[in-house]
């Protein structure tokens, strides 16, 4: 399971010009699910996302996590994160989870985040989405478990 996280001032996701998720300051998570990912994987990655210190303290150092700054979370499924791009000019998705496993793990990841009391908005799994964000920094990290 891979999460590409971006610290944002605000972010939103639309499907067919309909707003389906929107947050203020916080983290946009683009989430890719791989074959073999389990609920334990989702739990571990959700903990890492929520506890990753990417927000500035009073001294301007990245020492605070999402919960400490009372930030919000927008989680968008993105299977292209698990693409193998090592050879050729076309990505391979052979390591991507099946759509049913991907959806189950995506939804479970969201549940794990909400259980920690974080305001968590989502995209729509499997939809053609338009994601809008204002990256704060820019600050972007790839997290894997």
Give the tally of β-strands: 8
* Percentage of residues in strands: 35-45%
Helix content: 10-25%
Q: What is the gyration radius calculated from CA atoms?
A: 15 Å
Series of secondary-structure elements, N-terminal to C-terminal:
EEEHEEEHEE
Structural class: alpha/beta
Q: CA-to-CA gap between the ends? A: 6 Å
Architecture per CATH nomenclature, i.e. the level-2 architecture: 3-Layer(bba) Sandwich
Helix tally equals 2
Low-pLDDT windows of residues: none
Give the domain tally: 1
In this structure, how is the largest beta sheet organized? Answer: 6 strands, mixed
Overall pLDDT level? 97
How would you describe the shape? globular
Description:
With 145 residues, the protein is α/β, with parallel strands linked by helices. It has a single domain, classed as D-tyrosyl-tRNA(Tyr) deacylase (D-tyrosyl-trna(Tyr) Deacylase, Chain: A). 21% of the residues lie in helices and 39% in strands. It has helices spanning 39-51, 99-115; strands at 2-15, 18-23, 26-32, 55-56, 62-64, 72-77, 120-122, 129-144. Strands 1, 2, 3, 6, 7 and 8 form a 6-stranded mixed sheet that branches. The chain has a two-stranded antiparallel ribbon with strand order 4-5. The model has no long low-confidence stretch (mean pLDDT 97).
Please specify the SSE layout and strand pairing.
Layout: E1 2-15, E2 18-23, E3 26-32, H1 39-51, E4 55-56, E5 62-64, E6 72-77, H2 99-115, E7 120-122, E8 129-144
Parallel strand pairs: 3-6, 6-7
Antiparallel strand pairs: 1-2, 1-3, 1-8, 4-5
